[in-house]
Amino acid sequence: MMGTLLGTGRLARFILRRDRLRLTIWVAVLALVPIGVANAFIELYPTEASRQELVLSVGASPALTALLGPVYDSSIGALTAWRVGTIISLLTGIMTVGTMIRHTREEEETGRRELLGSTVLGRHAPLLAALVVAIGTGLVLGVVVAAGMIGIGLPATGAFAFGLGLAGVATAFAGVGALAAQLTEGAGAARGIGIGIVGFSFLLRVAGDGAEASGLGWLSWLSPIGWFTRIRPFADEQWWVLLLWLALGTVVVVWAFAITARRDVGAGAFPPRPGQAMAGWGLRNEFGLAWRLQRGALFGWSVGLAAIGLVFGSVANSIGDLFAENPQLAEIFERFGGEEAITDVFFSVAVSIIALVASAYAIRAVLRLRVEEEGMRAEPVLATGVTRLGWSSSHLVFGLLGPAVMLSLAALVAGLAYGVAVGDVGGEIWRALGSALAQLPAVWVLTGVAMALYGLAPRLVAVSWAVLVSCLLLGQLGEILQLPQWALDLSPFTHIPLIPVEELEVLPLAVLLVIALALTGAGLVGFRRRDIQPG
Amino acid sequence: MSSAITISGLVKNFGQTRALDGLDLEVATGEIHGFLGPNGAGKTTTIRILLGLLRHDGGSATLLGGDPWSEATELHRRLAYVPGDVMLWPNLTGGEVIDLLGKLRGGLDLAKKQRLIERFDLDPTKKGRTYSKGNRQKVALIAALSSDVELLILDEPTAGLDPLMEAEFRNTMDEDRDDGKTVLLASHILAEVEALCDRISIVRKGQIVESGTLAELRHLTRTTISAEVSQDPGPIAQLPWVHDLLLHDHKVDFEVDSDRLGEAVEILAPLGVRSLISHPPTLEELFMRHYRDGEAT
């Protein structure tokens, strides 16, 4: 066994060398979030009494419990853990899966793994080196966060539970990434499986915590993201929960190693099948080609968004159950506008989450252009009768129409799930559709950002992802961090009226559309003028 | 129209590096033109400018009578291109890629495609990611060669092909020459260029250092003579136009400029020639000479 691990240390150092900037930015951003939020809570809720009040109102709001998980205590630390726990474990999961796929399957797909494999390097070393870096990053993140929390005066025990929890999340999802990397030949599909599992874990937690009243609370216990809440940092820590991550991580890692030991380098779990000897009718122009290259991801993401819609729609319904069982609670909420108002708030927040996921798809769809260019596959197409405009539009179309399809689908499923329960399918579907489609202009701004970067600064396309994460953080935590309005205004999603809570306003939507159009146009024109730059 | 490609004083910079430094190139319609040079000399950069994939920083380039940048699409319908590094879509089959590229160019000779698939012994049902380098090359070659176009631009087209397939490629090129197609063949495989090309341009560090037919280029250089004589070959050493002389008993090896070949034979004849081998410079020698001379300056 030792022989098959030869060179792991050297390879891990090499991965760190390649990713030093990427991982530093991730850790810095993820560490600043909980420390910043804890600081904000200290300022906003200085007295125990004010915090008690907050806990009571949160505990009474099933919508907040569904989205963020239950709140266990009124201390600053417990409130911070509740407020940021879900989003930070979600992002940690995405970071970890990304690191794993990047240094395992992607290396195999590009053939670089073969070059390394011919040197003095054990068969299992590449996978182990990626695991060491991915889990190590989680541990570093945990230590930095814990140190920061202790630094601003939070109890050390809770800070360590929080930090170890993040390391636990990283361990479990590093294992998931390792396994996903064994299954498919393409890195894109492997990344899709891995991040899909992270998203599914988030949904399990939302479903479990949102439908606790309906007896579905156990769903949260199936989710590595749910465990982060269950370790209960700063609120009577349950250390044994750490074992859950460790156990899951161990099982999937052993499984992944077992597959690596048997499979060929470069091969997936499924043997490649022969295909058509001739191109079909659909594969006759650049749009047919783009459809072939994009359709798998389009279907996968659509199914994912429909699943999110289903969970949110059903959870909104179980919020109704809660009111039925607890007339006292219903009475309290009558003062805030009744049950309908509470589900409206829930829906508007849910829709903004769906819009962010659709934006992630849009960016990915547009950046396929860069993947093709870097992979030297743009050149042969552009050396035929295909124009630059035609080729770039063939993929851009997915970044524009894909999110529209996905938002509609998610809204339809959510509206249907909720409408069936409340006996008003027609009305609920229209409400959900309207609220989802109002998000489109903001999503298209991100499509435009990706296109503009691709056309004008192709080496910087990864900045699109930084913009998306910034929008997520501004939207979720901007207000609690007391950021100035101009900072919040930087995110296009800030300007979308939260239908159905707020009235539909046309002007901000029109302005966003103009910005999206300008960015997209700049990208298309820029691409027509620039050199094709593989690598 | 007698010129398929006319390039003069072409300049291209990548940041601080100057990839093309005033390159001139003339490819006549109907000829197979060898574009010869070591790695990194600027062959691929020139081709990419001709295809409108890169913008040039100076000089001018005309392709099939049009501007390669602003009229790219119209020109591309009249040419086919095989890149030096063929990358295929992992989940498309070879057959699909051949058909797609053909359709994107505006037409494919189906009978010729079928013939070439058989000739090159390609399995068109395999997915892109399962092809070896040589098979990827075949896919791009079949797609280009079965297109009904005036001009073929081939960037090291036989890289990765086995000798059998290389021979098939040469046969196909001979047929295309008979059809009157123009071919720009970038390569560093000298035997291939020597066997196929009507005219040759040698590029080094972004400039053309020599251009002409193989015969013209040979004329500029020396012929190698190896002889065995019965008398003492010593006197040959006195002659100023004899180069790189090697004497070994009665054996003698030397080089002469091509226009002195007659005099060399006259000198040897009285010495009693037992055996005589004379061969013109190979392309390799031409190539090495330009490369070495360049390095020295």
Q: What gap, in angstroms, lies between the N and C termini of chain B?
A: 38 Å
Shape of chain A: globular
Class computed from helices, strands and strand pairing of chain A: mainly alpha
CATH architecture of the largest domain in chain B: 3-Layer(aba) Sandwich
Question: If you had to describe this structure to a student in words, what would you say it looks like?
Answer:
The complex is a heterodimer of chains A (535) and B (297). Chain A is globular. Chain A is built from 21 helices and no strands. Chain A is mainly α. The mean pLDDT of chain A is 90. The longest helix of chain A has 40 residues, at 286-325. Chain A is 75% helix and 0% strand. Chain A has two domains: 1-269, no CATH class; 285-535, no CATH class. In chain A, helix 12 packs across helix 13 and helix 18 runs antiparallel to helix 19 (463-477). Chain A has helices spanning 8-44, 48-59, 62-68, 76-103, 105-110, 112-117, 125-151, 156-183, 187-210, 224-230, 241-262, 286-325, 327-334, 338-374, 378-382, 388-422, 425-437, 440-456, 463-477, 485-489, 506-529. The two termini of chain A are 37 Å apart. Chain B has two domains: 3-215, Rossmann fold, CATH 3.40.50.300; 222-280, 2-Layer Sandwich (Alpha-Beta Plaits). In chain B, helix 3 (94-105) runs parallel beside helix 5 (133-145). Chain B is built from ten helices and 13 strands. In chain B, 33% of the residues lie in helices and 31% in strands. The longest helix of chain B is centred in the middle third of the chain and has 16 residues, at 163-178. Chain B is of the alpha/beta class and 297 residues long. In chain B, strand 8 (199-204) and strand 9 (207-213) form a beta hairpin. In chain B, the strands form three sheets. Chain B has a six-stranded mixed beta sheet with strand order 5-6-7-3-8-9, with helices on both faces.
